[in-house]
Structures are given as structure tokens and as C-alpha cells.
Amino acid sequence: MTGKERILDLACGYGRHSLVFARKGFSVTGVDITKAYIEDAKKTAQEQSLDATFTLADIRDITFENEFDVVLNLDDGAIGYLEDDEENLKIFDVIAKALKAGGKHFMSINNADYADRYFPTTNCEIGTKMLTIWQYGWDAKTRLMTLGAYNIHYGEIALKPQIDMDNANPMRLYSLAELKLIFQKCGMKTITSYSNYTENESTNKELVLNVYSIKQ
Fold this sequence. Notes:
Elements: E1 6-10, H1 16-23, E2 27-32, H2 35-47, E3 52-56, E4 68-73, H3 85-98, E5 99-110, H4 112-118, E6 121-126, E7 130-139, E8 144-153, E9 170-172, H5 176-185, E10 188-195, E11 208-215
Parallel strand pairs: 1-2, 1-4, 2-3, 4-5
Antiparallel strand pairs: 5-11, 6-7, 7-8, 8-9, 10-11
């Protein structure tokens, strides 16, 4: 990275990643479908005089072509959230089209290989104000994960957790092998992959899968 690259942040949310790169001097464009997120990101960028543009749009509808040196899909980046496989695959087409030749793509998603190994399961997260119980469902055939949560606030009488998994939003998960094939069809090549935001090689024993690919 030279510091002159143009970066596209897909499903950027409040601009958490976009704004960090803009503060480092990169020219950044963020896209998200949620109006409140985009308005908040724009406000921060304006207040800090950052080279960051934020666009309210469904990322399937953007039409960038050979414009960016880097594309980001971090914290899932909307991958797997759409109505079916056909719609989810459109995001990969958007990624490939937006990148210049030799452009880089970075993504972090939940790992389907991990889900095959460990789901369904239940675990908990100890926070500063509450205990959160997470319940993970998994359909190995459709590759859909469902996630439900129940919060127990400290200092309150704890009731038996009731997690409504029937109304939990399903999310399509991908394995590394699947991603390599998808990117190959889009004219891209997967270079390397890591687990859980570390430099450790990806494995089916870790939930978060980070993948680095380039456009050929």
C-alpha cells in the first residue's frame, strides 16, 4: 500500500473502517443501505475534513467499473445476508467489476467449515453490563446459519432464557474452497486466508475467516 490507493468499503455501516483509512490519507468511498449509518458517517467525515464519500445504496445496484485499488467486505460486508444464493453472488460480481486489474479484495466472514464442525451450539459472552447467550443454528444442506441472542443484565433477577430461533434471520455461510471457486469465476484469485483477525492460517477450528484476493 502506498497511501494513494482508492478504497471502496461495501456495507460500510457507520464508516468504522472507512474513516480509519481516510484518517491515514486514503481516498475512501463507503456504501451502505441504512440511511442512519450513512448520515452518521458523512457527518464524521465532514467534521474531520476527511477524503471520504458515503453513498446510500443497495450494494447490488452500484455501477463502479475498474475504479478502485482496494475493495473491503469486513464484518461480513453484507455477504450471505441476501434473499438467496443468486442474490448473494451478485455482490462478488460487484467486487470484481469495481476493482482495477491487480486490485485487492479483503473480506471477513463466518466460516462454513467451522459451522459444519461445531454447529448447532450455544455459548455466552461476558460483557461489562450483561451476559449474552448466543445460540447458533445450522442447516448443512442449505448452508444457512441462524443466530439468536438473549441478554441477562447484571443486578436483575435472571429468568430462563427464551431464544426465538424460528424468527432469527438466516445467513448464508461460505467455505474457503467455495470462495476460491466463486472468485475464480469472477476473474479473481485467492492469495491467502487467516483466522480471527490474526496472522494464523485459516482453519475449520475458528469461526472468523479472513480472505485476501486479487483481480487478475
